[in-house]
Design goal:
Organism: Hymenobacter armeniacus
Largest sheet: 5 strands, antiparallel
Protein name: Crp/Fnr family transcriptional regulator
Shape: globular
InterPro entries: cNMP-bd_dom (IPR000595), cNMP-bd_dom_sf (IPR018490), Env_Response_Regulators (IPR050397), HTH_CRP (IPR012318), RmlC-like_jellyroll (IPR014710), WH-like_DNA-bd_sf (IPR036388), WH_DNA-bd_sf (IPR036390)
Radius of gyration: 19 Å
Keywords: DNA-binding, Transcription, Transcription regulation
Number of helices: 8
Distance between the termini: 43 Å
Strand content: 15-25%
Number of strands: 12
Helix content: 40-55%
Length: about 240
Protein backbone atom coordinates (compact mmCIF):
# COMPACT_ATOMS: atom_id res chain seq x y z
CA UNK A 1 0.00 0.00 0.00
CA UNK A 2 1.76 3.15 -1.21
CA UNK A 3 1.20 6.70 -0.05
CA UNK A 4 0.96 9.36 -2.75
CA UNK A 5 -0.42 12.84 -3.35
CA UNK A 6 -4.10 12.79 -2.40
CA UNK A 7 -6.79 13.74 -4.92
CA UNK A 8 -8.57 16.90 -3.82
CA UNK A 9 -12.20 16.36 -2.80
CA UNK A 10 -13.29 19.71 -4.26
CA UNK A 11 -12.08 18.85 -7.78
CA UNK A 12 -12.65 15.07 -7.71
CA UNK A 13 -14.99 14.08 -10.59
CA UNK A 14 -16.10 11.00 -8.62
CA UNK A 15 -17.68 13.07 -5.85
CA UNK A 16 -20.69 13.93 -8.01
CA UNK A 17 -21.74 10.26 -7.80
CA UNK A 18 -21.02 9.82 -4.08
CA UNK A 19 -22.28 10.90 -0.68
CA UNK A 20 -19.86 13.81 -0.85
CA UNK A 21 -22.04 15.51 -3.47
CA UNK A 22 -24.11 16.67 -0.49
CA UNK A 23 -21.18 18.54 1.09
CA UNK A 24 -20.28 22.20 0.63
CA UNK A 25 -16.98 23.28 -0.88
CA UNK A 26 -15.82 24.46 2.55
CA UNK A 27 -16.62 21.06 4.08
CA UNK A 28 -14.87 19.28 1.22
CA UNK A 29 -11.77 21.39 1.80
CA UNK A 30 -11.80 20.39 5.47
CA UNK A 31 -12.17 16.73 4.52
CA UNK A 32 -9.25 16.98 2.08
CA UNK A 33 -7.01 18.24 4.85
CA UNK A 34 -8.00 15.43 7.21
CA UNK A 35 -8.19 12.43 4.86
CA UNK A 36 -5.59 10.02 3.54
CA UNK A 37 -5.45 8.42 0.10
CA UNK A 38 -3.89 5.14 -0.99
CA UNK A 39 -3.29 3.14 -4.13
CA UNK A 40 -4.01 -0.59 -4.25
CA UNK A 41 -3.08 -3.26 -6.76
CA UNK A 42 -5.40 -6.06 -7.87
CA UNK A 43 -5.91 -8.52 -5.02
CA UNK A 44 -4.89 -6.14 -2.23
CA UNK A 45 -7.22 -5.85 0.77
CA UNK A 46 -8.59 -2.35 1.43
CA UNK A 47 -10.28 -3.36 4.67
CA UNK A 48 -10.81 -6.75 6.29
CA UNK A 49 -14.00 -8.38 7.58
CA UNK A 50 -13.97 -8.15 11.39
CA UNK A 51 -11.51 -5.23 11.52
CA UNK A 52 -12.21 -1.89 13.20
CA UNK A 53 -13.82 0.79 11.06
CA UNK A 54 -11.37 3.66 10.55
CA UNK A 55 -13.48 6.05 8.49
CA UNK A 56 -15.46 6.45 5.28
CA UNK A 57 -13.81 4.92 2.21
CA UNK A 58 -14.41 6.82 -1.04
CA UNK A 59 -13.46 5.11 -4.31
CA UNK A 60 -11.65 7.65 -6.49
CA UNK A 61 -10.97 5.18 -9.30
CA UNK A 62 -10.86 1.45 -9.86
CA UNK A 63 -12.98 -1.65 -9.36
CA UNK A 64 -13.57 -3.28 -5.96
CA UNK A 65 -15.33 -6.40 -4.70
CA UNK A 66 -17.05 -6.59 -1.31
CA UNK A 67 -16.82 -10.12 0.07
CA UNK A 68 -17.92 -12.27 2.99
CA UNK A 69 -16.44 -15.60 4.02
CA UNK A 70 -18.84 -18.44 4.80
CA UNK A 71 -18.51 -21.07 7.49
CA UNK A 72 -16.96 -23.38 4.91
CA UNK A 73 -14.26 -20.81 4.20
CA UNK A 74 -15.59 -20.00 0.73
CA UNK A 75 -15.74 -16.41 -0.45
CA UNK A 76 -19.00 -14.85 -1.59
CA UNK A 77 -19.02 -11.53 -3.45
CA UNK A 78 -21.97 -9.57 -2.11
CA UNK A 79 -21.42 -6.25 -3.85
CA UNK A 80 -19.29 -4.45 -6.42
CA UNK A 81 -17.94 -0.91 -6.16
CA UNK A 82 -16.57 1.60 -8.66
CA UNK A 83 -15.50 5.25 -8.86
CA UNK A 84 -17.78 7.46 -6.76
CA UNK A 85 -18.95 4.68 -4.43
CA UNK A 86 -18.51 4.92 -0.66
CA UNK A 87 -17.71 1.99 1.61
CA UNK A 88 -17.43 1.26 5.32
CA UNK A 89 -20.32 3.49 6.41
CA UNK A 90 -22.32 0.74 8.11
CA UNK A 91 -19.58 -0.02 10.62
CA UNK A 92 -19.24 3.70 11.34
CA UNK A 93 -22.96 4.19 11.96
CA UNK A 94 -23.37 1.08 14.12
CA UNK A 95 -20.00 1.27 15.87
CA UNK A 96 -19.24 -2.34 14.92
CA UNK A 97 -16.37 -4.02 13.02
CA UNK A 98 -16.58 -4.35 9.25
CA UNK A 99 -19.12 -7.02 8.30
CA UNK A 100 -17.34 -7.70 5.00
CA UNK A 101 -14.00 -7.22 3.27
CA UNK A 102 -13.15 -4.88 0.40
CA UNK A 103 -10.60 -6.13 -2.12
CA UNK A 104 -9.24 -4.42 -5.25
CA UNK A 105 -10.18 -6.08 -8.55
CA UNK A 106 -7.71 -3.88 -10.43
CA UNK A 107 -5.49 -0.88 -9.67
CA UNK A 108 -7.48 1.41 -7.39
CA UNK A 109 -7.23 4.76 -5.66
CA UNK A 110 -9.24 5.01 -2.45
CA UNK A 111 -9.56 7.94 -0.05
CA UNK A 112 -10.28 7.52 3.67
CA UNK A 113 -12.34 10.32 5.24
CA UNK A 114 -11.84 10.53 8.99
CA UNK A 115 -14.51 9.41 11.47
CA UNK A 116 -14.64 12.94 12.82
CA UNK A 117 -15.44 14.48 9.46
CA UNK A 118 -17.98 11.73 8.68
CA UNK A 119 -19.91 12.30 11.90
CA UNK A 120 -19.67 16.06 11.50
CA UNK A 121 -21.56 15.73 8.21
CA UNK A 122 -23.96 13.13 9.61
CA UNK A 123 -24.90 15.34 12.56
CA UNK A 124 -25.06 18.74 10.86
CA UNK A 125 -25.81 18.13 7.16
CA UNK A 126 -29.40 16.98 6.58
CA UNK A 127 -28.77 16.30 2.88
CA UNK A 128 -25.81 14.08 3.74
CA UNK A 129 -27.68 12.07 6.39
CA UNK A 130 -30.70 11.73 4.07
CA UNK A 131 -28.52 10.47 1.23
CA UNK A 132 -26.89 7.99 3.61
CA UNK A 133 -30.27 6.61 4.69
CA UNK A 134 -31.30 6.26 1.05
CA UNK A 135 -28.01 4.47 0.27
CA UNK A 136 -28.49 2.06 3.17
CA UNK A 137 -32.03 1.27 2.00
CA UNK A 138 -30.89 0.70 -1.60
CA UNK A 139 -28.04 -1.61 -0.61
CA UNK A 140 -30.36 -3.59 1.69
CA UNK A 141 -32.94 -3.99 -1.08
CA UNK A 142 -30.29 -5.15 -3.55
CA UNK A 143 -28.88 -7.61 -1.00
CA UNK A 144 -32.32 -9.11 -0.37
CA UNK A 145 -32.92 -9.51 -4.11
CA UNK A 146 -29.54 -11.16 -4.67
CA UNK A 147 -30.11 -13.52 -1.73
CA UNK A 148 -33.38 -14.74 -3.24
CA UNK A 149 -31.86 -15.15 -6.68
CA UNK A 150 -28.90 -17.13 -5.33
CA UNK A 151 -31.28 -19.38 -3.42
CA UNK A 152 -33.81 -20.07 -6.17
CA UNK A 153 -32.42 -19.33 -9.63
CA UNK A 154 -30.61 -22.04 -11.63
CA UNK A 155 -26.89 -21.51 -12.30
CA UNK A 156 -27.44 -20.53 -15.94
CA UNK A 157 -29.74 -17.66 -14.92
CA UNK A 158 -27.36 -16.61 -12.14
CA UNK A 159 -24.44 -16.37 -14.59
CA UNK A 160 -26.47 -14.16 -16.93
CA UNK A 161 -27.46 -11.97 -14.00
CA UNK A 162 -23.85 -11.72 -12.76
CA UNK A 163 -22.60 -10.69 -16.20
CA UNK A 164 -25.31 -8.03 -16.47
CA UNK A 165 -24.40 -6.74 -13.00
CA UNK A 166 -20.76 -6.44 -14.01
CA UNK A 167 -21.75 -4.57 -17.17
CA UNK A 168 -24.12 -2.18 -15.35
CA UNK A 169 -21.55 -1.47 -12.65
CA UNK A 170 -18.35 -1.06 -14.63
CA UNK A 171 -19.35 -0.02 -18.15
CA UNK A 172 -18.21 3.49 -19.05
CA UNK A 173 -21.16 5.77 -19.67
CA UNK A 174 -21.66 6.42 -23.38
CA UNK A 175 -19.44 3.52 -24.47
CA UNK A 176 -21.15 1.85 -27.45
CA UNK A 177 -18.58 -0.90 -27.92
CA UNK A 178 -19.24 -4.46 -26.67
CA UNK A 179 -18.50 -4.53 -22.95
CA UNK A 180 -15.26 -6.31 -22.01
CA UNK A 181 -14.02 -7.04 -18.49
CA UNK A 182 -11.16 -9.14 -17.18
CA UNK A 183 -12.33 -11.17 -14.18
CA UNK A 184 -11.05 -14.42 -12.75
CA UNK A 185 -13.29 -17.46 -12.89
CA UNK A 186 -12.97 -17.70 -9.10
CA UNK A 187 -14.34 -14.17 -8.69
CA UNK A 188 -17.13 -14.75 -11.20
CA UNK A 189 -18.06 -17.95 -9.38
CA UNK A 190 -18.04 -16.11 -6.03
CA UNK A 191 -20.36 -13.48 -7.52
CA UNK A 192 -22.88 -16.04 -8.76
CA UNK A 193 -22.55 -18.43 -5.82
CA UNK A 194 -21.03 -21.47 -7.51
CA UNK A 195 -17.71 -23.17 -8.17
CA UNK A 196 -14.97 -22.16 -10.58
CA UNK A 197 -15.53 -25.37 -12.56
CA UNK A 198 -19.27 -24.76 -12.99
CA UNK A 199 -18.61 -21.14 -13.95
CA UNK A 200 -16.12 -22.17 -16.63
CA UNK A 201 -18.51 -24.76 -18.03
CA UNK A 202 -21.42 -22.29 -18.20
CA UNK A 203 -19.23 -19.66 -19.86
CA UNK A 204 -18.36 -22.22 -22.54
CA UNK A 205 -22.07 -22.82 -23.13
CA UNK A 206 -22.73 -19.07 -23.48
CA UNK A 207 -19.74 -18.80 -25.82
CA UNK A 208 -21.06 -21.62 -28.02
CA UNK A 209 -24.43 -19.82 -28.19
CA UNK A 210 -22.75 -16.61 -29.41
CA UNK A 211 -23.68 -14.64 -26.28
CA UNK A 212 -20.06 -13.80 -25.41
CA UNK A 213 -16.45 -14.41 -26.28
CA UNK A 214 -13.50 -15.03 -23.97
CA UNK A 215 -9.79 -14.40 -24.21
CA UNK A 216 -7.84 -15.43 -21.15
CA UNK A 217 -9.63 -13.89 -18.16
CA UNK A 218 -11.35 -11.27 -20.37
CA UNK A 219 -15.04 -11.70 -21.19
CA UNK A 220 -16.71 -9.72 -23.99
CA UNK A 221 -20.50 -9.59 -23.94
CA UNK A 222 -21.90 -9.75 -27.47
CA UNK A 223 -25.63 -10.04 -26.72
CA UNK A 224 -26.84 -8.21 -23.60
CA UNK A 225 -30.44 -8.71 -24.80
CA UNK A 226 -30.00 -12.48 -24.69
CA UNK A 227 -28.51 -12.24 -21.19
CA UNK A 228 -31.56 -10.28 -20.02
CA UNK A 229 -33.85 -12.95 -21.48
CA UNK A 230 -31.97 -15.69 -19.62
CA UNK A 231 -31.66 -13.76 -16.34
CA UNK A 232 -35.39 -12.96 -16.19
CA UNK A 233 -36.65 -16.38 -17.30
CA UNK A 234 -38.05 -17.17 -13.84
CA UNK A 235 -39.00 -13.63 -12.75
Amino acid sequence: MNRFVSPQCQSCPSRHNSLLRCCSDADLETMSLGKTSHQYSAGQVIFQEGSRSLGLYCVHEGKIKITKTGGDGKEQIIRLAKSGDTLGYRGLVTGTPHSASAVALDDCTVCLVSKQDFFQQLNTNANFSGALIQLLATVLSEAESRMLHLAYKPVRERLAEALLLLMRTFRTEGDLQPFTLAISRDDLGALMGTTKETTTRMLSEFKNEGILTTRGSAITILSPVRLVEIATLYD
